[in-house]
Each structure stands twice: as structure tokens, then as C-alpha cells.
Amino acid sequence: MAIPMVDLKRQLADIRQEIDEGIASVLDSTQFILGPNVTALEQETAVYLGVKHAIGVASGTDALHLALRAAGIREGDEVITSPFTFIATAEAISYLGAKPVFVDIDPDTFNIAADRIEAAITPRTRAVLPVHLFGHPAEMKMIGEICDRHKLHLIEDCAQSFGAAFGGRQTGAFGAFGCFSFFPSKNLGGYGDGGLITTDDDRLAGEVRVLRNHGSRERYVHSLIGYNSRLDELQAVILRVKLKYIDRYNQSRRENAYYYNRCLNHPDIRTPAEREGVRHVYHQYTILVPDRAPIQKALQEAGIASAVYYPIPLHRQDVYLSTHGDVSCPVTEETAKRVLSLPIFPELTQAQIEQICGIILQAL
Ligand SMILES: *Cc1c(COP(=O)(O)O)cnc(C)c1O
To answer: Does ligand 1 come within 6 angstroms of the Cβ of 159?
Structure first.
């Protein structure tokens, strides 16, 4: 039987009645933008994440964009981030005319190498934007200390890490801002686009609320040029249902990852690291192999999905070549050639994992 990267049909089947009731209640209310479900979701996620404020926005990309803007990032500024991430992380920096400064990654966690950040700081550096890639928290203790020491904003890309924790504290609760995505395939995903910004700072929270709604605090009164970036009620009602199950979903992902680790015990396969003191939520289950092509081919022939996140590091992307052509991140470049992500979703069964691993071990 075919196995996709994510099986949203299976998950929907389990929660269908609650989702249908939620959608029907929004339709009956005919209140579609910034209504009671968005307010409730903001309160529920703030409690879950252990932050003072959570603000719904239109996407994870917008969450990053608005957070960076509210932090005062502007033209000529530099923001230190990882080159091994989805393009949106760097795009949000570029939207504001600032420059993403790419620092190489830790080969074990795939996250920005915290001990290389300080060497990249210049007088123009304003912020550090770590990504909790694949659901493994970045090295938040060291990154937080660096930001404090150099008075830099700390903004977290939590698009892949809803429910992950570092030292018992949720990702999104460390920085001036945490930026989440509710893209359907994320750990907490809606049925369309959506995002969330977290902060403990009352003033910054107010600023983000104004920015997401056309720079308006009061209807038809505009204090600054903002955006149309609101979370809608249908997404919020769906996300409120799924938030109730997020711990169960993440725990299933973790157990699936550990089962994969056992089945893939082979000298040519490096299974994902999980650092002590972190709660990894396995948005992706990503292995390192010397040669992934034959494995991908064998999986594909068996109808099993696999994916490469990410084949081209950001400093090697066409859009950044003219400004970042001389940047060298050897660990990222080597990692990009060898990573392979396997299906990992809460509903994946042990039998499916055994089937996938059997094919991989044979293809080696
Ligand atoms: C998905 C993702 C984003 C963007 O989120 P959208 O909701 O798709 O805009 C940003 N950063 C990372 C690391 C992501 O995985």
C-alpha cells in the first residue's frame, strides 16, 4: 500500500465530526475574520505555549515578516539565520530590505551552530533568527546568552516546532517573538494558510495586532502602514479542535521516530539526533545516508513517499547568489547532499515503518 509523506485524510477521519460542527458554527455565525474563534485560539495557544500573548496572522511567512518589522528591522540591518531552512525564513528578512547573514549548521541537529554566531556579528547586526528545524529546538541557552550580551533581538522560527521544548520551556517562549505556521502539513496544521506570533511584551504585541490589520488600532484610524494579515475564523475553529490533540499527535510522532531509529540500525544510516533536555516533535524524520538516490528510487517503486528538505541551501539559491555568492557553509552543503526525509505522521503504523525500513536496508 502506498504511503504518503503526510496522511491528512486519516487524521481528518478521526476528528471529522468535531471539525464539521466547528465549520458549521462559523458558517451559521457568518463572522469570518477575527471573530471569537481567533480570540479563543489566541488565548488557548498562549496558555499552551506559556507566553503572555499569541496573535493570529495569515501565514507563517507573515508571522516572521510582521515580527521582524515590529522588532524594528529595516533596510541595511543584518539578521543572522540558518541557510538550511525553508526560503520563507530568509524571505521575511529580505522583505524589510535587511540582509540575511547565513551561519553554518550543527551537523547533528541541522540547526544553526550556536558557537559560530558570535563570529558573524557586525555593527549592523540587529537580530538572530534561529529555526527549530524538523521540530528539534535550536540551542536556545547559548543563543539567548549571545543575544543578551550583544543586545540583539531574538526571533524564533517555530514553523516546524509547535509543542517542542528546550529545557522544559516551549519553543516560541524564548525570543522577543516566536513565529508559527499553521500550513496544513505542519505539526499543528489548519486546512489552509495561517500563522501565529507569540511574545511576552505588551507593547510589541500591540504593535503586531496593529500591523496585521492595516496599521489600524481603531476602525478607519491608521497610525502606520500595515498589512492585511489576519487569521480567519474557519481556520481558527479547525485549529482549536486540533490543538486539543496536539500532545497526542506529537507523542505519536516521537514514538514513530524511535521505532524508525531501531529499525534503521545500520552503519551507513545516521538517524536523527535528539539532544538531552529537548523535546523533539519530529516535524520531519530526516536521516543522513552516503547515497540517497537508490533509496529514493526503491521507495518510489514501492509507492512510498520520501523527500529532500532541503536540496539547495539558501546561500546557493539564485535569489541570494548575487549578494551571498561568496558565502561558504560547508556543513550545510554536505548535509544538503545527504539528507532524506521519510514519512512521519502521527497515524503512521509500526507495520508501515517496518515496510519502509525493509526497503531502505535492502537498497543500501
Ligand atoms: C512552513 C515554514 C515557514 C512558512 O510558513 P507558511 O505558513 O507556509 O508561510 C517558515 N519557516 C519554516 C522553517 C517553515 O517550515
So the answer is: yes
Has residue 169 got a pLDDT over 90? yes
Strand ranges, E, within 148-209: 153-157, 165-166, 169-170, 177-181, 195-199
- Which ranges in 264-291 belong to alpha helices (H)? none
Determine whether the shortest distance from the Cβ of 284 to ligand 1 is under 6 A.
no
Ligand 1 binding pocket includes 157 (Cβ within 6 Å): yes
Question: Is 131 a pocket residue for ligand 1 (Cβ < 6 Å)?
Answer: yes
The end-to-end CA distance of the chain, in Å, is: 22
- Which three three-digit cell numbers place residue 346? 502521527
Host H or E run for residue 142: helix 140-150
- Contact present, 68 and 89 (Cβ < 8 Å): no
The pLDDT of 78-91, averaged and rounded, is: 98
| 3-state SS, one letter per residue, for 60-111 | HHHHHHHHHHHCCCCCCCEEEECCCCCHHHHHHHHHCCCEEEECCECCCCCC
Look at residue 21 in the predicted model and tell me its pLDDT.
98
Q: Tell me how far apart the alpha carbons of residues 112 and 37 are, in angstroms, rounded to a whole number.
A: 35
* Mean local confidence (pLDDT), 262-284: 97
| Residue 212 amino acid letter | R
Nearest atom in ligand 1 to 160's CA: 15
Query: Among 155, 158, 179, 181, which residue has the most ligand 1 atoms within 8 Å of its CB, making it the best to mutate?
Result: 181
Residue type, 160: Q
Ligand 1 pocket member 59 (CB < 6 A): yes
pLDDT in tens, 104-156: 999 999 999 999 999 999 999 999 999 999 999 999 999 999 999 999 999 99
For ligand 1, atom 10, the nearest C-alpha belongs to 88
CA–CA distance from 36 to each of 15, 43, 245, 277 (Å)? Answer: 21, 11, 21, 37
Q: Measured on CA atoms in the order 187, 191, 194, 198, is the torsion positive or negative?
A: negative
For a ligand 1 pocket test, name from 57, 59, 61 the mutation site with the most ligand atoms within 8 angstroms of its C-beta.
61
